[in-house]
Amino acid sequence: MSIIVKFFVAPDDTSAGLALKTGPGRAFESLSFGNFDPEEAVIEWECLLAGGSFEELVDAGEPRIVAGLENDGCVVFAISPRLSTALADAGPSRLRDIAASWAQVRTEDGEAIVAEIADAIVGGLAALVSSARRKPQSVYCWVA
Predict the structure, then answer these.
(1) Which residues pair with 8 in a beta bridge?
(2) Separation between Cα atoms, residue 41 and residue 53, nearest integer Å
(3) CA distances (Å), 127 to each of 14, 72, 90, 114, in order?
(4) Are the C-beta atoms of residues 103 and 116 closer than 8 Å to each other?
(5) pLDDT by residue (tens digit) across 5-54?
(6) How many whole angstroms separate alpha carbon 64 and alpha carbon 123?
């Protein structure tokens, strides 16, 4: 399980990849969380918001690693365009429903995430995606 999770806005993969060793820092608009698996979470959120299966998304290469190696220290990955669109287009009540569903899935898998924290994570990420779209930039995740 990750200790530090930072979702952040960057203009492109190259810029995002520069965050690998030290995190996004102040150079990028970001949100910080911790103690959940963000790679698994983004796949689950995409399934809940846009449909499809977990296995299909993994087979399609989601989430797309931008820098680092999975399961080997820090990693930076991109939030898929499909998830970004679904998050930006979802209204507040839909985001709360997705957060509650995600918290339920995590609890069933033995990883208790409080509904209020799930709501803050999903809602915060949706706001960050909306901000990125206005620039236009993309959202990435740094995991340490």
Answers:
(1) 30, 140
(2) 13
(3) 23, 30, 10, 20
(4) no
(5) 999 999 999 999 999 999 998 889 999 998 899 999 999 999 999 998 99
(6) 22
Nearest CA among 34, 62, 131, 29 for reference residue 19: 29
Q: What is the pTM of this model?
A: 0.93
Question: Is 143:23 a contact under the CB 8 Å cutoff?
Answer: no
* Burial of 52: CB neighbours in 10 Å, binned 0-12, 13-18, 19+: middle
The tokens describing 86, both together, are 């679904």
Query: Residue 120, exposed/middle/buried by CB under 10 A (0-12, 13-18, 19+)?
Result: middle
Terminal CA-to-CA distance of the chain, rounded, Å?
10
Instruction: Give the H or E element holding residue 77.
Output: strand 75-78
Go through 27-39 and write b for each residue having 16 or more CB atoms within 10 A of its CB, e for each that does not: ebbbbebeebebb
Residue carrying structure tokens 């995740």:
141
